[in-house]
Amino acid sequence: MSKFSATVVLDQLADLAKHISEKEIIPNFKRSTHVRKSDGSPVTLVDTAVQSVLEGRLPKILNVPVLGEEMPADKQSQIWGLRDSGIWCVDPIDGTTNFINGIPYFAVSIAYFSAGKSILGLVFNPISGEVFTAEEGGGAYLGDQNLSDNASRHGTLKECVASVDFKRLPEALRTRLVSAPPYASQRNFGAASLEWCHVASGLFDVYVHGNQKVWDYAAGALILSEAGGVMSSFSNTKDRFWGGDALSQPVIAARDPAIFKDWSNWLHISL
User: Fold this and answer.
1) Overall pTM surpassing 0.90 (yes/no)
2) Buried-most residue among 96, 132, 193, 220 (CB within 10 A)?
């Protein structure tokens, strides 16, 4: 995909995400009822409405199938199997619990997969209007700001601010992170795609999550990588992050490559 065509596609995605936000998401913020899916996570009519719009509109931008969070597991697996030849991967509202409860931290996440990895990614924050984008080999941006200019503000792991999702981590690791954390401070806000972007932009320095679905990381991980950050699965090297067959994986990431090495080593010792 040429730089020009990638730019056009990302612009179209930004327009689409903004339109969906204005028409479907913001009018229903704090107003949407929900049910529980089989895995216990909430879903609202807004989630399904937004995904329906994305399934209809994205193939008009690039004519490939759409993999989304709000579809049956067998259909997800079927579409995931097509990722080498090109698919869209979307989370219509990443951070549904926040959306339901009036916590202003959620996003629309859209990625284009080809050859088994994300090639284009966009994360849109409906509350702030921020648009994070990335193209493989073309850099990562917050609006017009090049995120590679945002180096980590801290030189050592012990000075860092971490984003940590405790709920899905192994018990022994959770305990050690609470009792003897290697970083200065910790946060978690409940919307993975935005958390990836906020590592990329330097709000967080390091990140760990015990199990993310591909739609949680597809856009955000590309944005971090193109900003100069590093990520891996617990079990894979950074070069194999995109190489797995599973729809989910535990993730480790950092804005600074040197800090990533210390962070990854500490986590693996603690497992």
Assistant:
1) yes
2) 220
